[in-house]
Amino acid sequence: MSAAISASNPLQPCEQSGPPTLRVGGLTPLTTTDYPGQLAAVLFCQGCPWACGYCHNPHLIPARSDNGRDWEHITGFLQRRRGLLDAVVFSGGEPLYQRGLDTAVTMVRDMGFRVGLHTGGSYPDHLQRLLPQLDWVGLDIKAPFDRYPQVTGVPGSGERARRSLEHLLASDCDYEIRTTVHPLIFSPSGLRDLARQLASLGVRHYVLQAFRDTGCMNSAYQQVSATSLLDSGLRDELQGLFEDFTIRGLAD
Ligand code: SF4
């Protein structure tokens, strides 16, 4: 693990009030990769309480932006895609940062779409409340829980992620747990230890994904490749721990 990465964004509480609609910082109109097996649109929600060094959407970390998409524009777009898309994925930033997410999820469900959520797990209570409305969740587990602050820059973040994982595994919601692989965060043995920990907690669907330097503002992360971390022996070992195990974007 690298030395601590300082946070430029202090932990902010989930908002108690605010506009009745969601602040969306970006939109992908069609993707086949952000919700496995589904044709989906992705809404990138504004705001995140963490400051991960490898974040490739740092423009979404501030709570507000001058470049946001109007919610009426979003709903108009989705109305025109009814019957053409299977699902809508709320991504970020951290979608659970905004209370307006709940209303947005309800509106999207009422349009007939399945609902997916990408989350870092920073708001376990909000996740638990919303889980009955979700069809699929992609939860990032960034590191062993006691080492989270070195990734997120925020004390206590590992406990929040652990509680989010527990809520998700206790639900009936489809999911994948995914970890971004970077040598500033993991050694091969560290990756093995995390995978074993997750398997012991009951994770059955696990994805390792390559760090993407597109958008990343941290030069320390940009300069290091992760491809050497996973040799074939470690891949085989991890494969045996999970019902589904996938590696995305890491060269052999
Ligand atoms: S939790 Fe996600 S959006 Fe937030 S800083 Fe980390 S990588 Fe970026």
Task: Give descriptors for this structure.
single chain; disordered N terminus; 8 strands; alpha/beta; TIM Barrel; 252 residues
Oligomer category: single chain
CATH architecture name: Alpha-Beta Barrel
Strand content: 15-25%
Q: Indicate the low-confidence ranges by residue numbers.
A: 1-14
Written description of the protein model:
The protein has 252 residues and is α/β, with parallel strands linked by helices. The chain has one domain (24-248): Aldolase class I (TIM Barrel). It is 29% helix and 19% strand. The chain has helices at residues 71-80, 100-110, 124-130, 148-152, 157-170, 188-201, 219-222, 232-239; strands spanning 24-31, 40-45, 87-91, 114-119, 136-140, 174-181, 205-210, 244-248. Strands 1-2-3-4-5-6-7-8 form an eight-stranded mixed β-sheet, with helices on one face. β3, α2 (100-110) and β4 (114-119) form a beta-alpha-beta unit. It is globular. The two termini are 23 Å apart. Residues 48, 50-52, 55, 57, 60-61, 92-94, 120 line the site of iron/sulfur cluster (SF4).
Detail the topology: elements first, then pairings.
Elements: E1 24-31, E2 40-45, H1 71-80, E3 87-91, H2 100-110, E4 114-119, H3 124-130, E5 136-140, H4 148-152, H5 157-170, E6 174-181, H6 188-201, E7 205-210, H7 219-222, H8 232-239, E8 244-248
Parallel strand pairs: 2-3, 3-4, 4-5, 5-6, 6-7, 7-8
Antiparallel strand pairs: 1-2
Helix pairs in contact: 3-5
The structure holds iron/sulfur cluster (SF4).
